[in-house]
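Before relying on records like the one below, remember that each one covers exactly one chain. Contacts with other chains, cofactors or solvent are not represented anywhere in the record.
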Amino acid sequence: MADLKKLVDELSKLTVLEAAELTEMLEEKWGVSAAAPVAVAAAAGAAGVAAEAVEEQSEFDVILKDIGPKKIDVIKAIRQITTIGLKDAKDLAEAANSKILEQAGKDAAADAKAKLEAAGATVELV
C-alpha cells in the first residue's frame, strides 16, 4: 500500500496548473465525471491543494454604493466610463446600489472604480 503521508506531502507541493492537470488525468484514467474531482479536491483541501485550485475571478460588476459630496463629478465619471447620456448617468448616480458596469474585465473594473472614487463616490466590485 502507498505511503499516504508521503502522497499528501507531494500533492501539497503541486501548483494550481499541476493540480488541474492531475485532475484531468485522473478523470481520464478512472472514467469519472467532473463531479468526482470535486470530492477529490475537497479531500485534498485538507492538504491545502483546494485553496490553490480556486480560480481567480475575472469578471466584475461595478456597484455605486454612495455618490458622495461631488455629484456632478460622479455623473461625469459615469458618462466617461459608460458613454451613456447625461440623464441616464444622473439616474444611475441617484439610484441606490446602481450597477455602473456588468461583467467587466478586471482591468476595466479597477479603472472604473478608480475614476469613480477619484470623483468622490464609494464603489464596490462584486
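The mean pLDDT is 81.
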